[in-house]
Design goal:
Distance between the termini: 12 Å
Strand content: 25-35%
Order of helices and strands: EHEHEEEHEEEE
Number of strands: 9
Bound molecules: inosinic acid, magnesium ion
Shape: globular
Largest sheet: 6 strands, mixed
Number of helices: 3
Structural class: alpha/beta
Oligomer: single chain
Strand order of the largest sheet: 4-3-2-5-6-7
Length: about 180
């Protein structure tokens, strides 16, 4: 489907305003402390790039990747790390950056893995949150927007690896899924 046929949920301007606010909040909360922005590939890459430039702190980047055997309609609950962190997280202020918090399985799994590294602080950041879909009782410390149970693409988020490069966040109609 062409991007122009997909309804816009958040425009690039709305996203930019909210990301700026999130960056200000994080900057205030960690004043004077270094942070590590830990992005979950690939969906969080564009969000992390913009958020990082709204955070005025001594910051470094790291990335990890997971594969899950769940899709939108079916949840097996299995999450597996396919790329681990490059740096040690021990005694660091870690901001785990996710595109979207859906069932919560990914974030619950990653929080458990990261806490075993004994960071100084672990905070979770999700641009989007779909609370209606939650299976695990997790919440993010910083949320951009809460959304309904809709499948969205753009601004890093994909469907079968497509649409990540759309500048706005758009809704993929149910019959496509
Ligand atoms: P969770 O483990 O179910 O919370 O899923 C988290 C991951 O599923 C996200 O990081 C996304 O990669 C993917 N995901 C969930 N909902 C959507 C969506 O609406 N659009 C694109 N990806 C999604
Ligand atoms: Mg993802």
């Amino acid at each position: 489907m062409s991007e122009l046929e997909l309804k816009v949920l958040f425009t690039r301007e709305q996203i930019a305003r909210r990301v700026a606010e999130m960056g200000e909040q994080i900057t205030r909360d960690f004043t004077g402390q270094p942070v590590i922005l830990l992005g979950v590939l690939k969906g969080a890459s564009i969000f992390l790039s913009d958020l990082a430039r709204a955070i005025h702190l001594d910051a470094t980047f790291d990335f990890l990747a997971v594969s899950s055997y769940n899709n939108h309609s079916q949840t097996s609950g299995e999450v597996r790390l396919t790329k681990d962190v490059d740096e040690s997280m021990e005694d660091r202020n870690v901001l785990l950056v996710e595109d979207i918090l859906d069932t919560g399985l990914t974030m619950a799994y990653l929080s458990k893995v990261l806490l075993a590294h004994q960071p100084r602080a672990l905070r979770t950041v999700a641009l989007l949150d779909k609370p209606a879909r939650r299976v695990k009782p997790v919440r993010a410390d910083y949320v951009g927007f809460e959304i309904l149970d809709q499948f969205v693409v753009g601004y890093g988020m994909d469907h079968a690896e497509r649409y990540r490069n759309l500048p706005d966040i758009r809704i993929l109609p149910k019959h496509i899924l």
